[in-house]
Structure formats: structure tokens, C-alpha cells
Design brief:
The complex is a heterodimer. Chain A is α+β, with helices and mostly antiparallel strands. Chain A has a single domain, classed as Alpha-Beta Complex (Sufe protein. Chain: A), CATH 3.90.1010. In chain A, 42% of the residues lie in helices and 18% in strands. In chain A, a hairpin with a 4-residue loop joins strand 1 and strand 2. In chain A, helix 2 packs across helix 3 and helix 3 packs parallel to helix 6. The longest helix of chain A is centred in the middle third of the chain and has 16 residues. In chain A, 42% of the residues are buried. Chain B is globular and about 70 Å long. Chain B is of the alpha/beta class. Chain B folds into 2 domains: 161 residues, Aspartate Aminotransferase, domain 1, CATH 3.90.1150.10; 257 residues, Type I PLP-dependent aspartate aminotransferase-like (Major domain) (Aspartate Aminotransferase, domain 2), CATH 3.40.640. Classes of the chains: A alpha+beta, B alpha/beta. At the A-B interface, helix 1 and helix 2 of A face helix 13 of B.
Chain lengths: 152, 428
């Protein structure tokens, strides 16, 4: 069960059971839908970005597996109060964390709390679950007009 | 890393009394499938994804190897010995497979890539010239995408209308509704012999009789029927029956479309190319007879030979015996799984084939799939290429365990234990 524990870390399980910033954000100035039809992960990201490009609030809702839900929950915590650019940088760090080779050392200082997702590297089929919320958030920030984001 | 099971744990042995269903010696059957001896993530492999693809017995693997080592040449072309041997082996395979489904003539069996290609061939070759605005195609709510999308494309192209037979909560077709959907505008009825998610076996004979009263023909998607049930196309009374080799313990890339000779003979070619012609001038061509007309280009010769070897292997036991064994195993699986806390079994039609789809409260199917994988248990998770069915049962995705005749009660027990671990891991 060692490997499994690496994927389903306590932090991930906690965020799956008690997702933070969960629920629609009324009057959000940006909204984006993310959907992976093959696995059924389906979420919405709601954002408020002020004139200084600061993410003043971010929420998500929807349904999905433990990995996609926990990833969305941790992401909202991490980027709330950050600038859009900082959020984009965090996206890049997360993306390279979960898609790097299994034996690549994890730079804890760089990825911080997100290190709990390092176990996803062992399960390439689950990378799309972990990154759905991030891609959806990035697209919302970029103001892209695609109706729906997918990581499949 | 490949670790043999013997190093890890004793071989799975059927429990006492287990070989009574169908009289199969499952322990010996398991030894015929080399892959069942391997380990996955340092655990014994428990392969319960047979509806996606089945494992191959050694005799199939060896038949393909032997073809390439001893007989390989192109068919229906050269006068040299190897070409004759290859042609003989290919046509002999067609004959074996025709006998397996009790086709009146072996020429009625067309080798194609699989059920999907067969469906598209019927849509193009049979329906396209016969359908127009006002005509209707009937499918059912339990169809695999491969038996939905080709008909949608046909309707888009011809202006025909797609009608759908509903199902009830157990996963049984509403035959009354089916009867009322049929009319003189119905061109074709496309229906699964058995559902890949629900396991429901549809009453093909009855449905064919109803359809024929209105002059409609019946296409049966046998991808999930042929691996579990004895198939007698004459007894079923349908007009077309298609199945895939890889779900029938044969190789990937090969499948069969059976069709009534008169219907096939009246159909135009689907693809143009070599082999399928009688004569070609630069202005026009005349086409070969059935089945060659539908086998343009060099076919999957080794695939056909491999599939024939699979059929020979199944004939050693007989599909009746295989079906009887699987029935017992399915009943056991249903009993054990029904006791799992928070489980919802989807598809409870009487007489279903050995497929169990389920959902668990508080666990997404992909977490179920990963956690079972860590236990060495392979199941399918997702929408199973049947999204309309997911909507019908109000879930985004399901997990599915699908059994073959090499699976055992021990493996069902391991699945139940594995499902217990899901709770343990996810907590809550």
C-alpha cells in the first residue's frame, strides 16, 4: 500500500472530503467550465480579479474524483490573494511537478503544499484529473472564450 | 518488472465444487493463458476487464507466430506455394468462423477490423442507398457509441430519422415501445446482442420477427454477445451480425460481419482497392463477389488465422459450457457485491452476461479504478463508450468488472476485498 499512500496523501483526502472555497461565487467576474468527458470530472472555476490584477476571490464547484477535487481545492487556497501572474507561475510549477519523471527530486521550497501531488507521477492516466482545475483557472485568467476546457 | 505469480503467491485455484458449472476445469484453462501468470504491481493479476478486451490463449499466440514463421505470403495473388498456403489458411479461418456462428455459407462472413467497421459498412453499404428523408433507423438506449454514431452520421447524410428504444431501471428493453416505433418507414434496427455495461441480453429473435413484419432488417452488434453466448445466426433470425476478434480471445484488428447472402450481394462496395474487383479499366471497374467485394486491400491475414485459432480453442469447451460457468460466476459476483455497503449495481436484467457495472457512494469511479489497480485488479472505469446510458442512470461514470471463463470465485472475493480497501483509503 506504500505507493497508494503516496497518491492518496492525507492532505488530498482531507481536501476531497472537505473542499475549501467550494460553491459558486456570485457575481464572479470570470467563470470557466472544465470537463473531462472520458472520466466524468466536471468543475467550474469562479474568479474575481481586481484592477491591480490581484485574485481577490476564487471558488470552484462540480464533481469529480478525489484527485481532481483536492487539486481544485488546494489550488484555490494557493492562488487566492496572489496576482494573476503569480497564479500562472504556480500553474507552470504544478504542471511540471505532475508531469516530471518519477525520480525527479521534488523541490519542496518551490512547490510547497503542492508536493502532495507528486504521487500522481506514478499514475500517468491521472495527470488529467490533477490538472483540470489548473487549466480551467488559467483559461479563466487568460479570458479565453472557449466554452469548455478539457485535459483529455 | 515481471514476477511470476508462483514466486509471490500460490496459483489461484478454483474452490471445491467450482468446476461443476459447465464442467470446466478452470485451473487448467488458466494455464492456457500466459498473461494470467504475470504479476501487476507485485501482486497477482486479477483481470476483470474482459468486456474491453480478453486475454489470449497460447494456441492463438502460437497460430499467429506459426503463420509468420512458416506460411507468410499475400493471399489470392501468387501461384507460388506460400501464397497458396496463406490463402488456404485464410479461407479455412473463414470457414471455421462461419461454422462457429452457424452461418449457412462461409462466404457470408466478411473479415473486417472489428465490430465498428462492420457497423459502418452496413450503414454505408446497405442503408445509404436505401434511406432518405422520412426513413427511420431504430437503435436502443443501451448501445455502445459504435452502434450510435454511425447511424447518426447516416441520418445526417440522408435526412433519415433516428429512433431510440427506451430501457427500464433494470436495464431491460421496452419491447412494447419497440413495437410501436416500428413502421413501414423503418429501414434498419441496430441493437446489441448484449450490453457492454448492463450485461442485458436482448431478445434478438423476437425483435427480428417484429422488424421483418415491417420490411426492416436487423443489424446485431455482437461484440459482447459472441464472447459469452452460443451464437447461431439462423436461430437469431437477424440479417447482420458483427463481432470483434479481440473480445473473443483472438487478436486485435480483426472482426467479422456476417450478413444474409442476398443482402450482401445487393450491396455496393464500402472501400475501393485491390482484391475487391473483378476487372478494372481506367474508365470503370466491376466488383468481385461477396465476401471479397468488401475486403479491399491486403486483409489482416494473421489476424483471421489467430481468430480462427481462438474459435477452435472455444470449441474445445463449447459456448454452452462457457455460458453455464459464467452464469454461476456472475450469480456469485452479484451476491457478494450486493452485500457491499453503499454499492449500487447497475444492470440487473435476468439472464444477463457476466458484466457487473457498479457505483459506490462517495467514491468516484477513477479512484475505484486506481485503488483496485494497486491490488492488481484490472477493472474498467469511465463512461464505457455509452454516455447516453450514463445519463439514463444519472451517473457521470461507473466502474465495471467483466468476467471471462478463466475468472474464478477467488477473484470475485479479491474484488470484494479490494472494494473494501477503497473505503479504507479514501476514509469518510
Amino acid at each position: 500500500m506504500t505507493e497508494l499512500r503516496e497518491l492518496y496523501q492525507q492532505v488530498i483526502l482531507d481536501h476531497n472530503r472537505n473542499p475549501r472555497n467550494f460553491g459558486a461565487l456570485e457575481n464572479a467576474d470570470r467563470h470557466k467550465e472544465g470537463y473531462n468527458p472520458l472520466c466524468g470530472d466536471h468543475l467550474h472555476i469562479y474568479l474575481n480579479v481586481d484592477g491591480e490584477d490581484l485574485i481577490t476571490d476564487i471558488h470552484f464547484d462540480g464533481s469529480g474524483c478525489a484527485i481532481s477535487k483536492a487539486s481544485a481545492s488546494l489550488m484555490t487556497q494557493m492562488v487566492k490573494g496572489k496576482t494573476a501572474q503569480e497564479a500562472r507561475d504556480a500553474f507552470e510549477r504544478f504542471q511540471s511537478l505532475v508531469t516530471s519523471e518519477m525520480d525527479t527530486p521534488v523541490d519542496l521550497e518551490e512547490v510547497g503544499k503542492l508536493a502532495v501531488f507528486a504521487g500522481v507521477r506514478e499514475f500517468p492516466m491521472r495527470v488529467k484529473c490533477a490538472t483540470l482545475a489548473w487549466h480551467t483557472m488559467k483559461s479563466a485568467l487568460d479570458g479565453k472564450h472557449d466554452s469548455q476546457i478539457t485535459t483529455e | 518488472m515481471t514476477v511470476t505469480v508462483a514466486q509471490q503467491r500460490p496459483m489461484i485455484s478454483p474452490q471445491v465444487g467450482q468446476t461443476t458449472g459447465g464442467g470446466l476445469d478452470v485451473e487448467s484453462i488458466r494455464r492456457d493463458f500466459p498473461i494470467l501468470g504475470r504479476a501487476v504491481r507485485d501482486r497477482r493479476l486479477i483481470y476483470l476487464d474482459n468486456a474491453a478486451t480478453t486475454q489470449k490463449p497460447r494456441s492463438v499466440i502460437e497460430a499467429i507466430e506459426r503463420f509468420y514463421e512458416e506460411d507468410n505470403a499475400n493471399i489470392h495473388r501468387g501461384v507460388h506455394l506460400l501464397s497458396q498456403q496463406a490463402t488456404f489458411a485464410y479461407e479455412r479461418a473463414r470457414g471455421r468462423i462461419a461454422t462457429f456462428i452457424n452461418a449457412p455459407e462461409s462466404s457470408e462472413c466478411i473479415f473486417l477490423r472489428g465490430t465498428t467497421e462492420a457497423t459502418n459498412l452496413v450503414a454505408h453499404g446497405y442503408c445509404r442507398p436505401r434511406c432518405g428523408p422520412g426513413d427511420e433507423i431504430i437503435i436502443t438506449h443501451m448501445e455502445h457509441h459504435s452502434n450510435i454514431v454511425p447511424w447518426q452520421l447516416l441520418c445526417e447524410a440522408t435526412g433519415a430519422t433516428l429512433r431510440v428504444v427506451p430501457i427500464d431501471d433494470e436495464g431491460v428493453l421496452d419491447l412494447k415501445e419497440y413495437e410501436s416505433l416500428l413502421n413501414d418507414k423503418t429501414c434498419l434496427v441496430a441493437v446489441a446482442h448484449a450490453s457492454n455495461v448492463l450485461g442485458t441480453v436482448n431478445p434478438i429473435r423476437q425483435m427480428s420477427e417484429f422488424a421483418h413484419r415491417h420490411g426492416a432488417v436487423v443489424f446485431v452488434d455482437g461484440a459482447q454477445g459472441a464472447p459469452h453466448l452460443p451464437v447461431d445466426v439462423q436461430e437469431l433470425g437477424c440479417d447482420f451480425y458483427a463481432f470483434s476478434g479481440h473480445k473473443l480471445f483472438g487478436p486485435t484488428g480483426i472482426g467479422v460481419l456476417w450478413g444474409q447472402h442476398a443482402l450482401l450481394d445487393d450491396m455496393s462496395p464500402y472501400e475501393g482497392g485491390g482484391s475487391m474487383i473483378q476487372s478494372v479499366t481506367l474508365e470503370s471497374s466491376t466488383y468481385a463477389d461477396v465476401p471479397t467485394r468488401f475486403e479491399a486491400g491486403t486483409p489482416d491475414i494473421s489476424g483471421a488465422i489467430g481468430l480462427s485459432a481462438a474459435v477452435d480453442y472455444l470449441n474445445r469447451f463449447g459456448m454452452e459450457a462457457i455460458a453455464a460457468y459464467e452464469d454461476e460466476l456472475l450469480e456469485y459476483a452479484h451476491q457478494r457485491l450486493a452485500d457491499v455497503d453503499g454499492i449500487r449495481l447497475i444492470g440487473t436484467a435476468p439472464g444477463k452476461v457476466s458484466v457487473v457495472a457498479f457505483a459506490l457512494a462517495d467514491a468516484h469511479p477513477h479512484d475505484i479504478g486506481t485503488i483496485l489497480d494497486m491490488e492488481g485488479i484490472a477493472v474498467r472505469t469511465g463512461h464505457h463508450c455509452a454516455q447516453p446510458l450514463m445519463s439514463r442512470f444519472g451517473v457521470p461514470a461507473m466502474a465495471r468488472a467483466s468476467f471471462a471463463f478463466y475468472n474464478t470465485r477467488d477473484e470475485v472475493d479479491a474484488l470484494v476485498t479490494g472494494i473494501g480497501k477503497i473505503r479504507e483509503v479514501l476514509g469518510g
